[in-house]
Amino acid sequence: MSTSAGQSGPNGVVIVGGGLAAARTAEQLRRSEYSGPVTIVSDEDHLPYDRPPLSKEVLRAETDDVTLKPAEFYAENDITVLLGNGARAVDTAAQTLTLADGTQLPYDELVIATGLVPKRIPSFPDLPGIHVLRNFDESLALRKEAATAKHAVVVGAGFIGCEVAASLRKLGVDVVLVEPQPAPLASVLGEQIGELITRLHRAEGVDVRCGVGVAGVQGDDRVRKVTLSDGAEVDADVVIVGIGSRPNTDWLEGSGISVDNGVVCDDAGRGSAPHVWAIGDVASWRDQVGGQVRVEHWSNVADQARVLVPTMLGQQPASAVTVPYFWSDQYDVKIQALGEPEATDTVHIVEDDGRKFLAYYERDGVVVGVVGGGFPGKVMKTRNKIASGAQISELLG
Ligand SMILES: Cc1cc2nc3c(=O)[nH]c(=O)nc-3n(C[C@H](O)[C@H](O)[C@H](O)COP(=O)(O)OP(=O)(O)OC[C@H]3O[C@@H](n4cnc5c(N)ncnc54)[C@H](O)[C@@H]3O)c2cc1C
User: Fold this and answer.
1) Best mutation site among 39, 66, 114, 167 for ligand 1 pocket (most ligand atoms within 8 Å of CB)
2) Fold of 13-117+246-313
3) Which N-terminal residues, if any, form the signal peptide (predicted)?
C-alpha cells in the first residue's frame, strides 16, 4: 500500500476521470492546503459535471446546466483540467500515465476516478434508437429522440431505468418497463418496496412488466419492436438499456493494480500499488468488517474524498460517522434510502397513503435503514437512530 504524499513532489497529484469524484478530490486537495500541482485527466470534452440530472431534468429538457464548477474555479485554484484525452495505461514503477494521444504524464500520486461503463445486451444489434445512459451526450441523444417518440421500452427497472421511465412519461411517451425480477429494485430494496414502486409507475401509466426479460429487438433503419421472453411483442421507437454498469477498469489491465469488481483499496482509498488511490463508483473500499464494498451513489463520493485526501497528505482525516444515503426522483416522489437497507431485511412499512410510503429495515432487531418515498423529513429524522444502531422497537414505538 502506498505511503503519504505530504506536500512535495514536482509532478503532484494526477486524477484520472472527469466526473464527480475527480472534482471532489481536486477540491478537497486545495481545501486541505495541498499546494503542489493538481491535474485532472478526462476522456470527456466537458468539464466535470453532475450525473443525477441526466435521467431527470436534462432528459426532460428542463436544464442543460450540469457543470459542477465553472472553468474559473479550476483556474483560480490552479487545477489543470485536460479534456478529451483519457488515460489508456499506467506504469506504476515509473509513476507515469500514457494518455490516448500518446502523451506521457508523470505523477507523484495517482487517483483513479474513472466511474462505470453501462452494460449492454450483447445479442442486441447495433441499431439507431437503442440507448444507454451514463453521460451528458447520451442524455442529449435520448432526449432528441424522445421528443418525437411515441413508444419507449425501458429494459431494467433499477434506479436509472425507473427514472428514465418517469421522465419519458412526463414527456408524453408511452413506456413499457421490463424487469426480470418480481418487482423494480427488488434485489436492492426487497419485493415489498418494489411493489410500491410498481404501483407508482402504473399510476402514471407505465406498463410495468415484471418477471420477463427481452428476447430480441427488431428494426430496419432503426429499432421498431422488442420481443419479450414471454413472447409478447411491443412497439419501440426508442429502447433504453438500464441493466447496470461495471467498473471502468479495462485501461488498468497489465498495470499490476489489483482489480476485483473495482479498484481494490483499503479503508482510505489506497490501492495495491504504491502511490495509487481510487475513489467513487470505480473504487472498492475495505469496510469496517474487512469486506470490500463498492458504492455507486453520489453522496458517497464526498465522504470518500474527506478520508482519502487527508490520508494521502499525511493529515488526520475527519472521523465523522456518515450514514450512507442515496435518492432517486420519480415523478413528484423523492425516493430516499438512509443506512444500509438490504433486500433480505425485515421491512416494516409504517406509512402508505397509496402513493407515498415510509419503511424501516430491521436486521436482528436493529434498525439498519429507512426507505421513504415522498417523506424526506421523516427519512432524515431516523439518521441518529441508524447511526447509533438503535433497536427497531424504539422506532415502532
Ligand atoms: C443517469 C444517472 C443518474 C444518477 N442519479 C443518481 C441519483 O439520483 N442519486 C444518487 O445518489 N446517485 C445517482 N447517480 C450516481 C452518481 O451520479 C455517481 O455515483 C457519481 O457520478 C459517481 O462519480 P464518479 O466520478 O465516481 O463517476 P462518474 O461520474 O461516472 O465519472 C467518471 C469519469 O471518468 C471518465 N473516464 C472514464 N475512463 C477514463 C479514462 N481512462 N481516462 C480519463 N477519464 C476517464 C468518464 O468519462 C467520466 O467522466 C446517477 C448516475 C447516473 C449515470
Assistant:
1) 114
2) FAD/NAD(P)-binding domain (3.50.50)
3) none
